[in-house]
Amino acid sequence: MAAGLLTPLSWLWRAGGAWRRGRARPYRPTIPVLCIGNAVMGGAGKTPVARDLALALQQAGHRPHILTRGYGGTVAGPQLVDPAVDTAATVGDEALLLARTAPVWVSRDRPSGARAAEAAGATHIVMDDGFQNPSLLKTVSVLVVDAQTGFGNGCVFPAGPLREPASAALERADVIVLMGDFDCPEPKEVAATTAPRLRAAMRVPELPLPRGSDCVAFAGIGQPEKFFATAEAIGLKLQGRRSFPDHHPYSDAEMQALVQQARDCGAQLITTEKDAVRVPLRFAEAVTAIPIVLEWQGGRALLDTIRSEFPDVV
Question: Alpha-carbon Rg of the chain, whole angstroms?
Answer without folding.
Answer: 20
